[in-house]
Amino acid sequence: MQHIPVDEYVIDVLLPDLTGHDHSPPAFLVYLILWTALYREEEKRVALSLQKISEATGLSKSAVQKAVRLLKRRGLIKVFKARPTGVPEYELVRHWVRRRARQSLKRSESKALRE
Question: I need a labelling partner for 24 at 20 to 30 A (CA). Which of 39, 108, 114, 115 fits?
């Protein structure tokens, strides 16, 4: 069995935000399934049908659709379709990674100025 690393932000911020604030534990489950699939594929995007996500989470297809809409509206995922009836490709938007990089750069610049 392979261990899959998950950013602290996902557990510390997204979990309580999606389950508590948005009242949508299914959205968090779908996010974790997408995270896992992307990690295993080692790609930026992963193609998964709603049925596959439904089977992986144990959620109904309509619950998965609702969760995907919420994640998309919150800017946590991007969804791409080549055709209207095609299998969607999902990409995670990890905005906290960019924010951390900017903060780290600012700290480095600040430290360099003090020296």
Answer: 39
